[in-house]
Amino acid sequence: MSINVLRRKLQNYLEVADDKKIKALYAIMEGEIEKSSEEYSDEFKEELDRRYAYYKSGGKMVGAAEVNKQIKEIIKKGRKK
Where are the domains of the chain? Predict the structure, then answer.
């Protein structure tokens, strides 16, 4: 069974599971769940704010298509070596 199917089955089960089972599952996974939802650092938030302000002030941005093109060119160069 693929991971996507497993995820979907778990999500569907969580929608209908009784409270006792939800609490038990959460207790088992709590450490990992809390770790995955950690807050961003202040430095990271400041960097995001700086980049957003740059964008809003008309700073030069690169679109997704151009980034993908650049990545493909870098990969192609790496394979030639």
Answer: 3-80
